Each structure stands twice: as structure tokens, then as C-alpha cells.
Amino acid sequence: MTEDMLVVDISYEPNLVYLAEEVQLTQTGRLLRRNGEDIALLLPVPAKQQRNQQTKTQADREAFHRAAGSWQDADTEQLLAEMRESCQSVSSPVDV
Asked: 57 in the Ramachandran plot: left (φ > 0), alpha (ψ -120 to 50) or beta?
């Protein structure tokens, strides 16, 4: 959505800063109207969705510890060669 919008720096426009901060705080948009005509819509930027913070279980911790170092014996050159080959087999090749 914001990729196709022009950016306007309102740092030195205290009335706009106040209005924008109110929209951000309340997460409620504002319809801007002049002389009875709707001229703009001020919407809050969506808050980033928080990652689900589940409590880690003992099984989670044990699995994490078992995985530590599990790649130390991997042949990285062979792995990279396989990744390159895999990438070349798709329609748009990617350098690895």
C-alpha cells in the first residue's frame, strides 16, 4: 500500500504531527474535510504483528541443544553445489 504513495515529512508542521500522533495512538483513521468536501483520509500504519511468544517447553530446549553442532561435519562445498544445481533447475536461475 505505502509503496505507491509519496512521502511528506511533517516534522515541522506541529498541527499535522499532533493529528498524526493521535491517529497512531488511537489506531483510528480520520477523514479530512474542507468546506463540506472530503479531501483526504489519514490512516494509521498497521502495527507489525508480534511473533507468537509461546512458552518454551523442556522438550523444546532439549531439541535445541541436540541440534547444536549438528552441521559441523557437513560438506559445505557439496551443499553449495547441490543448492546451485537446484537453483539452476528452476525457471529463473539464482546465483548462490
From this structure: beta
**pTM as predicted:** 0.45
Domain range summary for the chain, segments of one domain joined by +: 2-42
Three-state SS for the chain is CHHHCCCCCCCCCHHHHHHHHHHHHHCCCEEEEECCEEEEEECCCCCCCCCCCCCCCHHHHHHHHHHCCCCCCCCHHHHHHHHHHHHHCCCCCCCC
Average pLDDT, the chain: 82
User: pLDDT digits over 72-84, tens only?
Assistant: 888 888 888 888 8
